[in-house]
Amino acid sequence: VDYHKAFETVAPHVWIRHVIANLTKDAAAKIKDKIGGDVKLNQENLNFYSDKINSTQYVRTIRELDEVVSIFDFFVPLDMVKKEDSKPKKIKCLEILSSEKPVLMLGIVGHGKSTLMRVLAVNDFNYNKKFSFFYELKNISDNLTLDGLIKDLFNDWMNVNDFKLMEKMLNSGGISIFFDGFDEVGLAKENKVSVLLEKFVN
């Protein structure tokens, strides 16, 4: 997939509702193909997700405190440095979506990491037909377990309560999780969240 060309053709903020709904159905069909017909996602789950992924592209900015604006109205694609085998390599930010391994993104405050995470989540759904979840770590509870985190993600994004279904969907490769704001969890929870995320990706 040529992510840069795809990104430049149609900005996701011009989507209309039935387009998002069709993309959601495509993502569900992709998962069903991988794990069989045992995927019990109803239309309510799909509608719930459609509304959630659409809202991910809207944020409040310093200039627009009274209303939300689309991140695609101000986002500028970034160049990033990929550190692998001690050999830094310059890449385009959307190339992250081609990785099959967990990716850790680092940067100082104000560099646009949160905006980029939202852009990646929306684009992964749009072009890779994956159910993408964007999760702000500042909202994580003190005593959350790995199972609890999984339940929170699926409840919040798809209104799904069947834990076995959650596990099957995660193992299918049709789900992408974008965890944002590790620096906002606070020192008291930093270690616990680190351990939790390590368990999740493993």
Summarize the helices and strands and which ones pair or pack.
Layout: H1 3-9, H2 17-35, H3 43-56, E1 58-59, E2 69-70, E3 79-84, E4 87-92, H4 113-128, E5 131-136, H5 146-158, H6 163-171, E6 175-180, H7 187-201
Care to describe what's here?
Helix 2 (17-35) crosses helix 3. The protein has helices spanning 3-9, 17-35, 43-56, 113-128, 146-158, 163-171, 187-201, and strands at 58-59, 69-70, 79-84, 87-92, 131-136, 175-180. The protein is an alpha+beta fold. It is built from 7 helices and 6 strands. The chain has a two-stranded antiparallel sheet with strand order 1-2.
Helix content: 40-55%
What fraction strand?
A: 5-15%
Average predicted confidence as pLDDT: 83
Distance between the termini: 27 Å
For the report, how would you describe the main beta sheet? 2 strands, antiparallel
Q: Roughly how many Å is the radius of gyration?
A: 17 Å
Number of contiguous helices: 7
Q: Can you write the helix and strand succession as a string?
A: HHHEEEEHEHHEH
The assigned structural class equals alpha+beta
What is the oligomer described by this structure? single chain
List the keywords.
single chain; 202 residues; alpha+beta; 7 helices; 6 strands; disordered N terminus
